[in-house]
Amino acid sequence: MPAVWAIQHIECETPGTIADALKAAAISLQTVNAYKGEPVPKEMGAAAGVVIMGGPMGVYEEDRCPFLREEIRLIEQAVKEDKAVLGVCLGSQLLAKALGARVTKGKKKEIGWYPVSLTEGATKDRLWTGVEPSFIAYHWHGDVFELPRGAEPLASSALTPCQAFRYGERAYGFLFHMEVTEKIIGEMVRTFAAELKEERLDGQEIVKAAQNYLPRLQDTGAVVFRRWAELLTT
What we know:
Blueprint: E1 3-8, H1 17-24, E2 28-33, E3 49-52, H2 67-80, E4 84-88, H3 90-98, E5 103-118, E6 134-145, E7 152-156, E8 164-167, E9 171-174, H4 182-191, H5 193-198, H6 203-231
Parallel strand pairs: 1-2, 1-3, 3-4, 4-9
Antiparallel strand pairs: 5-6, 5-7, 7-8, 8-9
């Protein structure tokens, strides 16, 4: 059975429906809770891929969160070995940095439900082909990244030019969230209540809006994550 590392940075941001797709493909998911001090693997070893989840820290906070350095090294090794990588939110930023791109604070935080538009390149991408060209995604980020050199841009939003990219054939970064469930959204709203207050956003409105947007988003995520799981066995 193929195995995948999943690096988690905070309790509320779990692999969510990514785990469902991997389970359906008979792929073992081994979670590393870096925020609890569990050691990040020093090498990929026999693992077929790695999933890097979101979190409240920035990639530039390596001194405060030294495990970020270890994650970047692991991502670099996975890319070098042509193993599958899936970075979500902070994970996409770490992948971008590992590929030499700049990660900086955005002009404005993007939190809540906003449209994402796929690029022309996404129509030919192994994960995204056939997916509707625009959909409402769930966002929670303040940092943004440049497109890494040699990467294929896959999606953008009105506020953020680079929302998703592919590097090589197996490394993907998604700044937005498709893996979320009602439970994850509720826990994020509770965990980051102070941030919402600071941004003058209503967490309950974000939770309520999930009724309209989450089912369709999960359908899109199910297709993309299933296809990513297929990369692990080919």
